[in-house]
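Follow-up to my earlier ticket, as requested here are the two runs.
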Amino acid sequence: MKYAAIMFDVIESRRYFDRYEVQNIIINSVEYLNRIYSYAIKKNVVSSAGDEFQGLFLNLQDAFLYIRKLQFIIYPIKIRCGVGYGEIKYDVEEWSSSATDGEAYYLARDAITFTDKKKNNFFCFNTNTKYDKYLNSFCASTMQIKHRQSQIVYLIELIADILLPIIPCKEEKLFYEFLLENRHRLIAQEEWNKISKRYRDEKILKINLNYLFDNRYDLTIKEKKKDDFFPKEFWMRGMSTKIAEIMNTTRQNIDRYISLGKVKESRTMDKTIYELLGEKIW
């Protein structure tokens, strides 16, 4: 049986003068995601050495959801990730992911070796099929969009993902309280902040978590005439207004960030990658 192994590490972790903050965010985020995606995990994601982590998933789609979500919640920390799809040598329930090996892990290791050339958030799939180059081209496109996004746009994407996730999961408000408190400190630590003495966005918008979690799943995706030539836009009617209320700002302000940060394009590409990974070609 084939599984999806993921391996990732932190990019340029030394630029943070307090690496404890980085490790604290990542470890807490990994533990959180291990809980909410437990249904899809064969072996929990665990630290294999310092800033390196690995885990094993039942399929490619859920491995993608995990890494995508991780990149959102640990911002501004950046990671490189390799995903391998293949068999494992010994299926021993008691063994952790770090004690397991096999084809899936070998392919993931090859994939993350390729991403060593990248200094921005990046993930690479290695399924040992002819479709990898097309899949990874899509992944590179969505990562290129996200690389240009500001901290506020990343926050908007995260809120949008809670309001309308690709696949619903049991999100925990308490975790996001911890996350947002620590995110501001991490942004202040970044090397470009220490040099320029300012934030990329001068205004850091706070979010109303109670309102956010009370208003999940209550909007519907825009209806669109059936079109087999392009994926349906992964957005919903009234979403900008909801996000504006959650972030205590105007809808026009949110629409401006959505347009400049290409949030709709980013979400639609991510949903497309997810659906592609569910096709019977892997």
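Run two:
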Amino acid sequence: MASPYRLVAPTGSVTAPAAAPASAPEGAAAATSPTQPLSDDPALEYRLGEQAYALGNYEQAVRHFERSYQLSNFAELLYNLGKAYTQWYDLKNDLSLLRKAKRLFQNYTKRLTENPEMDQSQRAEAEAQISRLDEQIAAEEARQAAPPPVVREDPGFDRAPAQPQPDRKPVHKRGWFWGLIGGLVVAGAVTAAIVLTRKPGFEPELGSIGPNTGGVALRF
């Protein structure tokens, strides 16, 4: 990552990285705590950002690098912020983080163009980062815009056997109806034949008990 604290002084000499004040929090824990108050020392905030980045705490790295940039306006911090946002996206999968990283790299290269005397050694890498982010953003936007996949039924899936549908034919079109009618016709024909073949004067024998049966009376 770019280090903005090895800078060319007005006299042309190279200064060493700024040392953190004695009261600065020590150890990596200070760089990983989201409740740790930000300081007014850009060098300290840069160092805490480096620690958080090395530990994979990219959100905290962004927090400290942004504070250091606010205090110092060093262009190199734009490059560091672009890297931190890119890594943060890999953890959070939020497309807005990629867009923010791209803008930071673009602002960094813009600063290099406006100030040719600045260290240009990381310009090519920043431009390559912009190209990669363009491709990554386009691919993610296309994925999000694509319709959901159609779930096709497994041909080997065993379905429950279809239940037979009830017969919806009209009554006069059903076989059992005409069978019943035929039976009734045959029964009627037999009855008619029996009646027609009886001898004249024939009376059915209903029994010998009646009012004129020899004067025998029944008593109950």
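The only thing I checked on run two: The chain has a mean pLDDT of 75. Let me know what else you need.
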